[in-house]
Amino acid sequence: MALLIGCLVLLVVAVVLLGLFQDLLYSAVGLAVASIMLSIVLFQFGANIAAVFELSVCAGLITVLFVSTVSLTKDSDQSGESRLPARFLLPMLVVFTGVALTGVTWLASHVGAASGAARGSFQEIFWGQRSTDVLGQIAIILAGVLGMLAVLRVKLQGGHHD
Amino acid sequence: MTEAVAGIAFTGLLVFMIGVYLLFAYRNLLRLVLGVEVLAKGVTLILLAAGLHRGMVPLIQSLIVTFIIVETILAAILLSIIVICQRTNGTLDVRVLSKLRG
Predict the structure, then answer these.
(1) Which residue of B has its CA nearest to A112?
(2) How close A122 comes to chain B (CA, Å)?
(3) Whole-number Å distance between alpha carbons of A31 and A41
(4) Number of neighbouring beta carbons within 10 Å of residue A18
(5) Chain B environment of A112 (Cβ under 8 Å)
(6) Distance between CA A137 and CA A147 in Å, rounded?
(7) A56 at the B interface (CB within 8 A)?
(8) Whole-angstrom Cα distance, residue A15 to residue B69?
């Protein structure tokens, strides 16, 4: 329980710091730390495969993509950005905490009790019951690849490549 | 609802609201992508809390894996569009990007 509370607190702290940092590279590190904490929480509750996905894809791949994008757009104007949203983040956090507490209290009183454990392992459910999701994932990955190719083709036709 | 599930649901709601705040408050496109990612972390936590409450961890695990894949493809597409946008317009401020305004 102590490990769970520590991970959840660190996750919220990382997310808040991500909004407070002015340097986008520090914000990317904050996002990676939040992903690591989330994967530890997933691992604690037996969602091992989801934890590995979260750790490798979200904490690894997305951070690398984000840092690459920051380095590709390094001449963008970062210093002129307003600090107003960061100053309001901490007061807003108090409001958000109140709303979240109210929401969880309402859920606890209105959501019914557990209806029994699901039958089958992750493999049986993923490849058997949720096989349509696998097709959807393949379609989304293909759409992503084709979308990036389309963006790159526009770039080459526009003659802006360097 | 056990204490652990309530704690995870509370953190999920809190992180989700911080993500929405990042989306509304910031004007830099890269920070908006960060907001989407934070929002996705909150959704993952809420999904986990729902699965734990109903005792359906394997089912919710497969949904989380699907969600992570969607989130990653979305981030990759958004970041590639941001690179092109910055090279075309020279800025990442959404207030300046008015070419698509009707």
Answers:
(1) B1
(2) 5
(3) 15
(4) 27
(5) none
(6) 15
(7) no
(8) 21
Q: CA-CA distance, B54 to A22, in Å (whole number)?
A: 41
Task: Report ipTM (2 d.p.).
Answer: 0.91
Q: Rounded to whole angstroms, how far apart are CA atoms B11 and A50?
A: 18
- Structure tokens of B68? 């992570």
Half-sphere exposure of B24 (CA within 13 A, CB side): 9
> Over its length of 162 residues, how does chain A's per-residue pLDDT go in tens digits?
888 899 999 999 999 999 888 888 999 999 999 999 999 999 999 889 999 999 999 889 999 999 988 888 875 455 556 677 777 888 888 888 899 889 988 888 887 766 666 667 878 888 888 888 888 889 999 998 898 888 767 655 655 554
> Which of B17, B52, B70 is the mutation pick for testing A, counting most A CBs within 10 A?
B17
CB contact under 8 A, A115 and B73: no
Q: State how far the alpha carbon of B92 is from the alpha carbons of A2, B31, B34, in Å.
A: 42, 10, 14
The pair of structure tokens assigned to A151 is 């963006």
